[in-house]
């Protein structure tokens, strides 16, 4: 039976971490009811980061992580709870993404390496190399976060380790275009649509892209999607609507993609020229 992945599109609506946790949890519960084997939330599901209010929104002592673990175990599904801003033992603050299995255990932690420029005022970039971990249902999995998507090197690093599924919680808005909005106020939608499709094809992977959603008038883009070679979008949100969408994944597509494009064969060749 093909595994099912749920896109849980949402964004925090207040500065109340508990309220946001409950709203995110309801989407995960809905995903479980729809038979999802994996539920993925967007970046910053507990709170958007505010540089001068770090102590208000940063999770302490893994308080919310532990609750997400308990939720995954209760619902018997795999869960990527977006990202959580957390303090490290050395006092630094990183933007962390976790993969939690059906037993509530953390299989992998990824600390965002490529910080979006405004994030650099409060976060320290992750120092660990991009890494792949094995799962029973989704093959070799890698985690990326938002601005990581802009760097093909991140994908190639995961491809070199045999990645099959890349999960990317994101908080990408229309406002991220900055001064570029004078040329096209919807430029970031064009950017994302092109970027996700290209990355899926050129790396022969399943991309689970889950972006923050909300009213377009407030700058939210949404457009969460599962994208694969040949298919393009398997399932997606057209805009910023809040909700859950579930799809089955046929991993045989990846073998066919390699037989056609032979990207991985070229990359592993001793005479590869890059």
TrEMBL record:
Gene3D superfamilies: Carbon-nitrogen hydrolase. One of its GO terms (molecular function) is hydrolase activity, acting on carbon-nitrogen (but not peptide) bonds, in linear amides. SUPFAM superfamilies: Carbon-nitrogen hydrolase (SSF56317). Keywords: Hydrolase. InterPro entries: Aliph_Amidase/BUP, C-N_Hydrolase, C-N_Hydrolase_sf. Residues 3-267 form the CN hydrolase domain. Transmembrane segments: none annotated. Pfam families: CN_hydrolase (PF00795). This is Nitrilase.
């Amino acid at each position: 039976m093909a595994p099912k992945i749920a896109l849980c599109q949402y964004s925090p609506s207040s500065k109340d971490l508990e309220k946001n946790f409950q709203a995110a949890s309801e989407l995960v519960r809905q995903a479980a009811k729809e038979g999802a084997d994996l539920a993925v939330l967007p970046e910053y599901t507990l709170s958007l980061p505010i540089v001068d209010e770090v102590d208000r929104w940063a999770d302490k002592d893994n308080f919310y992580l532990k609750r997400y673990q308990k939720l995954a175990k209760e619902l018997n599904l795999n869960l990527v709870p977006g990202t959580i801003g957390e303090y490290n033992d050395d006092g630094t603050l990183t933007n962390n993404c976790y993969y939690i299995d059906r037993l509530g255990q953390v299989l992998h932690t990824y600390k965002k390496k490529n910080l979006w420029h405004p994030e650099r005022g409060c976060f320290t970039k992750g120092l660990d190399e991009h890494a792949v971990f094995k799962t029973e249902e989704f093959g070799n999995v890698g985690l990326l976060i938002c601005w990581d998507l802009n760097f093909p090197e991140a994908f190639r690093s995961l491809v070199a380790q045999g990645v099959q599924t890349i999960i990317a919680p994101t908080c990408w808005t229309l406002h991220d275009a900055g001064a570029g909005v004078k040329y096209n106020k919807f430029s970031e939608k064009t950017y994302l649509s092109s970027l996700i499709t290209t990355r899926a094809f050129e790396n022969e992977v399943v991309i689970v892209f889950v972006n923050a959603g909300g009213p377009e008038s407030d700058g939210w883009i949404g457009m969460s999607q599962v994208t694969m070679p040949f298919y393009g979008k398997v399932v997606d949100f057209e805009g910023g609507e809040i909700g859950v969408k579930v799809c089955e994944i046929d991993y045989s597509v990846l073998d066919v993609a390699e037989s056609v494009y032979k990207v991985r064969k070229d990359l592993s060749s001793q005479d590869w020229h890059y």
